[in-house]
C-alpha cells in the first residue's frame, strides 16, 4: 500500500466500569480491541456493525475525543496519541467530525454564524470578523444553505438543514479527514439521499478522506471505497467494497448482508436469510476465542481456543478474521441453508 | 441492476438541490422565545409592573417629597397618615417622615439583595460549572468543600463577618452573597453534568476549543434558564435575611434604615402606631410576591415542558 494518510495500529479503547463492591475488581468494557487499518488520501472507509459494537468509540478514539487505551494513531507520519494537549488542538484543524444527531450537535444558544465559525476561530485566531464571516458564508454556500440563514438559531431548522450546518462546521477549516459518525441515521430517507450526495460531492471537490460510520449497509455501500466490519470491538472483515459485498468472507458479514432490506420485493423474497440467534454477547465478558462463535452457524470447537487473526482471503487486500474464511467463500449458500 | 443504477442517478439529480427553505419570521433565539412566553403570563407581567413601580419610586421618590429620612419634623411626632400635612404615611416616634423612610429602606433592601445575589450568582456559576465540567477528583474536592460550608451554622458566620467588616452593611451583604452561592453551585454543577455530555460540547472539543472557553461559551450560556430562575428566588430570600438580621440588630444602623428595620421597629408599637408596621410591611410583601411571580413566570418561560 502506498503512503497512508492515516494509519491506525492495534488501537484499543477500554472503559473501566464502577466496581460492584470496594473489594471487587472494576469490570472492564473493551469497546474497541486491537483495530488496525490504513487509509489513503481521498479514500472512504465505511465502518459497519450492530449497535454497541464500538463503531462510534472507534471513530472518537481516532480523533482522541475518547482517549484510546492502547495502540497508535499515525496521522501524516505523526503519532496523534503522543501529542500534547496543545499540539493536539492544533492538529484538529485537519481532522473533523460530523455527528449523528444534527440538532443536538449544535449549541442552541449560538447563531449559525457562531457555530460554523467556531473551528475557524480556534484554527486561525488572527482572522478579523469580516473575513471569518465571509468564510462562514462560503462554507454555507458549499453545503447548500441560503446566506440569509446566518443569523438564525439551530432550533429553527429542520434536521436536514441542521446536518448541513454540522457539515459546514466540519469543512470550514479545510480539513483532510472527516469522521462521519452515522451522519444520516437520524434523518428521513429522502433527506438522507440529499446529505449523502452532498457528502460525496464535497469529498470530490475538496479532496476529503472520510471515515463513514453507519449501521445502514445501503448507505455505506453508496459512499465507501473500502468496508470494515466490526463485531464486539474487533475487526472481523475488511476489504474493498465490491469484494465485501459480493463475496463476504466472514459468517457475520454474510448475516449482516442477508439482513439488509432490499428495495425490490421480488429479489427480497427469493434470497436466503441467515438469521442470527440472540443478542451480541456482552463486551464486558466476551466469549473466548472468536467473539462471534456463540452466534455463528458454522462455529466449531477450535473457534473457542484463540482469537482468529485477520488473514488475507483470495490473496488480496480483502481480509477476514474467520478460521474458515475460504470455506465461507466457497460454500456460498450452504451456510444459509444449514442454519435455517 | 442497470435499471436500478439509472433510477438512482435520476433520483440523485433531484436530490442534489440546496436546502434553502427558510424558517418563517425573524430569527428567534431561545431568549427571545422565553421572553415571548413570559409576556404571555399575566401574573408575571403584573409582578414586573409592580416591581418596576416600586423600584422607580424608591430611586426617584425621595427627590419629590419635602422630607428626608433622618430630620425630625418638630411639629409632627407620632402623627398618623395625613394628607394635609404632607406626611402621607405618617411619622414615627422621632417625628421622621415614614414615607421617606420606607423609600430609603426599600432602596437599601433592594441594593443589598442585588449585591448579594450577583455575588452569589457569579461565584456559584463559575464554581459549579468548573466542578461539573472538569469532574473527577477536582469535582469531588470542590463539592466536599461546599458540603463543609453548608454544615457551618449560618448565624455564627454572619456574626464573625460582622466582626470582620464592622458596620459596612454593603460589605456585609457581599459576604452574605459569598454564603448564598452554595445552593447555586450545586444547581449549576448538576446542569453542567448533563450539558457536558451533549454533542455540541463534543463538537467544540473536536474543533480544538480548550476547556475554559468551552465552559464560558457553551456551558454558561446554556445555564441561563436555571440560573435566572434561581437568582430571582434568591433575591427575596436575601431581603428576608436582611430583615431578620436587622431585627436582631446586625443589619443597617440608624439613622439609615431598611425594610426589615422599619418592620421590627413598627412591630413593637403595633398597638399605638399601626401605620409604622403596615406601610413597610405592605411594601415588603409586594416586593416578595413580585419576585416570586417573576421567578415562577421565568421558570415556565425557560422550560415550558415543566409546567
Task: Tell me about this structure.
The complex is a heterodimer of chains A (340) and B (307). Chain A has 340 residues and is α/β, with parallel strands linked by helices. Chain A has helices at residues 55-62, 85-91, 112-123, 129-142, 159-171, 189-206, 217-223, 241-246, 251-259, 265-270, 325-331, 333-339; strands spanning 6-16, 28-39, 44-48, 70-75, 78-79, 95-98, 177-181, 209-213, 226-231, 234-240, 311-312, 319-320. Chain A has 2 domains: 4-19 and 26-94 and 175-331, P-loop containing nucleotide triphosphate hydrolases (Rossmann fold); 102-174, no CATH class. Chain A has 12 helices and 12 strands. Chain A has an 8-stranded mixed sheet with strand order 6-7-8-3-9-10-12-11, sandwiched between helices. A 4-stranded antiparallel sheet of chain A has the order 2-1-4-5. The longest helix of chain A is centred in the middle third of the chain and has 18 residues, at 189-206. The two termini of chain A are 40 Å apart. In chain A, 46% of the residues are buried. Chain B is mainly alpha-helical and 307 residues long. Chain B has one domain (39-67, 93-306): MetI-like (MetI-like fold), CATH 1.10.3720. Chain B has 12 helices and no strands. Chain B starts with a helix and ends in a 5-residue tail after the last helix. Chains A and B meet through helix 2, strand 6, helix 3, helix 5 and helix 6 of A and helix 1, helix 8 and helix 9 of B.
Distance between the termini of chain B: 56 Å
Largest sheet of chain B: none
% residues in beta strands of chain A: 15-25%
CATH fold descriptor of chain B: MetI-like fold
CATH C-level category of chain B: Mainly Alpha
Which of globular, elongated, flat, extended, rod-shaped describes the shape of chain A? globular
The spatial strand order of the largest sheet of chain A comes to 6-7-8-3-9-10-12-11
| Count of helical stretches of chain B | 12
| Rg for CA atoms of chain B | 27 Å
Strand percentage of chain B lies at under 5%
CATH superfamily of the largest domain in chain A: P-loop containing nucleotide triphosphate hydrolases
Membrane topology (chain A): Peripheral membrane protein
GO molecular function (chain A): ATP binding; ATP hydrolysis activity
InterPro entries (chain A): AAA+_ATPase, ABC_transp_ATP-bind, ABC_transporter-like_ATP-bd, ABC_transporter-like_CS, Oligopep_ABC_C, P-loop_NTPase
Subcellular location (chain A): Cell inner membrane
Amino acid at each position: 500500500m502506498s503512503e497512508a494518510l492515516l494509519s491506525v495500529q492495534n488501537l484499543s479503547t477500554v472503559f473501566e466500569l464502577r466496581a460492584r463492591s470496594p473489594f471487587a475488581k472494576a469490570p472492564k468494557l473493551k469497546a474497541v480491541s486491537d483495530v488496525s487499518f490504513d487509509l489513503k488520501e481521498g479514500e472512504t472507509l465505511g465502518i459497519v456493525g450492530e449497535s454497541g459494537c464500538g463503531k462510534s468509540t472507534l471513530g472518537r478514539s481516532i480523533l482522541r475525543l475518547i482517549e484510546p487505551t492502547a495502540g497508535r494513531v499515525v496521522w501524516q507520519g505523526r503519532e496523534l496519541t503522543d501529542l500534547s494537549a496543545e499540539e493536539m488542538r492544533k492538529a484538529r484543524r485537519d481532522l473533523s467530525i460530523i455527528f449523528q444527531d444534527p440538532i443536538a450537535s449544535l449549541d442552541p444558544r449560538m447563531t449559525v454564524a457562531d457555530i460554523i465559525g467556531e473551528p475557524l476561530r480556534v484554527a486561525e485566531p488572527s482572522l478579523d470578523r469580516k473575513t471569518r464571516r465571509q468564510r462562514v458564508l462560503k462554507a454555507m454556500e458549499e453545503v447548500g444553505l441560503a446566506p440569509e440563514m446566518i443569523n438564525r438559531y439551530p432550533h429553527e431548522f429542520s434536521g436536514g438543514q441542521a446536518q448541513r450546518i454540522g457539515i459546514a462546521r466540519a469543512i470550514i477549516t479545510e480539513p483532510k479527514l472527516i469522521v462521519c459518525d452515522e451522519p444520516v441515521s437520524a434523518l428521513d430517507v429522502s433527506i438522507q439521499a440529499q446529505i449523502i450526495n452532498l457528502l460525496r460531492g464535497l469529498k470530490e471537490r475538496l479532496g476529503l478522506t472520510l471515515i463513514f460510520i453507519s449501521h445502514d449497509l445501503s448507505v455505506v455501500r453508496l459512499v465507501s471505497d473500502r468496508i470494515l466490519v466490526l463485531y464486539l470491538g474487533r475487526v472481523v472483515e475488511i476489504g474493498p467494497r465490491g469484494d465485501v459485498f459480493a463475496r463476504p468472507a466472514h459468517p457475520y458479514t454474510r448475516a449482516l448482508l442477508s439482513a439488509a432490506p432490499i428495495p425490490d420485493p421480488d429479489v427480497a423474497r427469493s434470497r436466503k436469510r441467515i438469521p442470527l440467534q440472540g443478542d451480541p454477547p456482552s463486551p464486558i465478558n466476551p466469549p473466548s476465542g472468536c467473539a462471534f462463535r456463540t452466534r455463528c452457524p458454522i462455529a466449531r470447537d477450535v473457534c473457542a481456543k484463540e482469537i482468529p487473526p485477520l488473514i488475507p482471503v483470495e490473496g488480496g487486500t480483502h481480509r477476514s478474521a474467520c478460521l474458515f474464511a475460504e470455506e465461507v467463500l466457497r460454500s456460498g449458500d450452504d451456510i444459509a441453508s444449514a442454519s435455517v | 441492476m442497470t435499471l436500478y443504477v439509472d433510477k438512482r442517478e435520476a433520483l440523485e439529480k433531484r436530490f442534489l438541490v440546496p436546502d434553502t427553505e427558510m424558517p418563517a419570521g425573524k430569527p428567534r433565539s431561545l431568549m427571545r422565545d422565553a421572553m415571548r412566553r413570559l409576556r404571555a403570563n399575566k401574573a408575571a407581567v403584573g409582578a414586573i409592573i409592580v416591581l418596576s413601580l416600586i423600584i422607580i419610586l424608591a430611586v426617584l421618590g425621595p427627590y419629590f417629597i419635602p422630607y428626608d429620612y433622618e430630620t425630625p419634623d418638630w411639629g409632627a411626632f407620632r402623627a398618623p397618615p395625613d394628607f394635609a400635612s404632607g406626611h402621607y404615611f405618617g411619622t414615627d416616634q422621632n417625628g421622621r417622615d415614614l414615607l421617606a423612610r420606607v423609600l430609603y429602606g426599600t432602596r437599601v433592601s433592594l441594593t443589598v439583595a442585588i449585591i448579594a445575589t450577583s455575588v452569589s450568582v457569579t461565584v456559584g456559576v463559575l464554581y459549579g460549572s468548573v466542578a461539573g465540567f472538569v469532574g473527577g477528583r477536582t469535582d469531588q474536592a470542590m463539592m466536599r468543600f461546599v458540603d463543609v460550608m453548608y454544615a457551618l451554622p449560618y448565624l455564627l458566620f454572619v456574626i464573625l463577618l460582622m466582626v470582620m467588616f464592622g458596620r459596612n452593611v454593603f460589605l456585609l451583604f457581599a459576604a452574605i452573597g459569598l454564603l448564598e452561592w452554595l445552593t447555586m453551585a450545586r444547581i449549576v454543577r448538576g446542569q453542567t453534568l448533563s450539558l457536558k455530555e451533549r454533542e455540541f460540547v463534543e463538537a467544540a472539543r473536536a474543533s480544538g476549543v480548550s476547556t475554559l472557553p468551552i465552559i464560558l461559551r457553551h456551558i454558561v450560556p446554556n445555564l441561563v434558564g436555571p440560573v435566572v430562575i434561581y437568582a430571582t428566588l434568591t433575591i427575596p430570600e436575601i431581603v428576608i435575611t436582611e430583615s431578620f438580621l436587622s431585627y436582631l440588630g446586625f443589619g443597617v444602623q440608624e439613622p439609615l434604615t431598611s425594610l426589615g428595620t422599619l418592620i421590627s421597629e413598627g412591630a413593637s408599637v403595633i398597638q399605638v402606631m399601626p401605620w409604622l408596621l403596615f406601610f413597610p410591611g405592605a411594601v415588603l410583601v409586594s416586593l416578595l410576591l413580585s419576585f416570586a411571580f417573576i421567578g415562577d413566570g421565568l421558570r415556565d418561560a425557560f422550560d415550558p415542558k415543566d409546567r
